[in-house]
Amino acid sequence: MTQTVLVTGASSGIGKATALLLKRVGFTVFGTTRRPDAVGPQEFPMLGLDVRSDDSVKALFDKVGRLDVLIDNAGYALTGAAEETTLAEAKAQFETNFFGAVRVVNAALPAMRTARAGKIIIIGSLAGLTAIPFSAFYSATKFALEGYAEALWHELRPFGIDVTVVEPGFVRTRLGEASLVAAGPLPAYADFEKRALRAIDGAVSRGIAPERVAARVLGIVQTDHPRLRYRVGADATWLPRLKNVAPWRVFAAGVRRTFALDPNA
Questions:
Q1: DSSP per residue over 88-113, as a string?
Q2: With contact defined as beta carbons under 8 Å apart, do 166 and 124 qualify?
Q3: Which residues belong to the active site?
Q4: I need a labelling partner for 110 at 20 to 30 A (CA). Which of 18, 194, 252, 254 fits?
Q5: How far apart are CA 185 and CA 5, in angstroms?
């Protein structure tokens, strides 16, 4: 029997590449976006979903019914110094990137528990393993997803439900172009922030294709008992390892060099 897959945030980037790949190999795929009317025709049904809304999530699951695989991908980037970011902006970031994922998982779980089967795949990030300067709250949401998924892995194991986090490094997507900028810029940060964001843009332009992440997701879907974590891309593989073994001063110096954060850089 064909398995049913839901991919949130499927209008572009990793979500779209994943939905297309799974559709082409034979899965029944539903994608979601906040504004399906603005996306145009797709190879898979594109449904409206606002992950910030309990009612929107409920309405979606009333349409799609039971899932075999949930791919939690919806999210956005927010840049700016932590001090420049209002609490309202920070809370909005968590409402989409973290609590939005939680809402969708909670909606999928009752049917999965009854069936004693299912896969939940959360698209995390290198930013959830080592923080990205001037993306403090984006990084915080990705760190939060790591802890959430690890606890969920233990809780759902008795029900035959697999939980996996995919941790890509920098990926060539439009996430940066579509990112929001903190509304309260402070002159003290301007020079460093400009340097850091230029470095981030460069890393994104040199990043892996979203299709590589999609291929990893397909492998996880086709694996009987996938691991909790999978890293995709060289930077996502070696940077966290280096962070674990190098003295903090050495690792931090490398991060500051990468993002041109020192005054004499």
A1: HHHHHHHHHHTHHHHHHHHHHHHHHH
A2: yes
A3: 138
A4: 18
A5: 41
Q: What is the pLDDT of residues 173-192, one digit of tens each?
A: 776 555 788 888 899 999 99
Cβ-based burial of 81 (10 A; exposed 0-12, middle 13-18, buried ≥19): buried
| Torsion of Cα atoms, 158 then 159 then 161 then 164, to 10° | -30
Cβ neighbors of 261 (< 8 A, separation 6 or more) are 133, 192, 195, 196, 255
Kindly report, residue by residue over 216-225, the tens digit of the pLDDT: 999 999 999 9
Contacts of 58 (CB under 8 A, 6+ apart): 107
How far apart CA 190 and CA 13 sit, in angstroms, is 29
What domains appear along the chain, each with residue ranges and CATH number? 4-258 (3.40.50.720)
| Chain centroid, CA 218 distance in Å | 16
Yes or no: say if 19 and 211 are a contact pair by the CB < 8 Å rule.
no
Q: What is the CA radius of gyration of the chain?
A: 19
What CA dihedral angle connects 41, 123, 150 and 218, to 10 degrees?
A: 70
| Helix, strand, coil content of the chain in percent (nearest 5) | 50, 15, 30
Token pair for 38: 């603005």
Residue carrying structure tokens 């989409």: 96
Give the count of beta carbons closer than 10 Å to the beta carbon of residue 55.
Answer: 8
How big is the chain, counted in residues?
265
| Tokens matching residue 226 | 């996938």
Cβ(61)–Cβ(161) under 8 Å?
Answer: no
Q: Which two tokens stand for residue 200?
A: 């981030």
Rounded (10°) CA dihedral 233, 96, 59, 165: 30
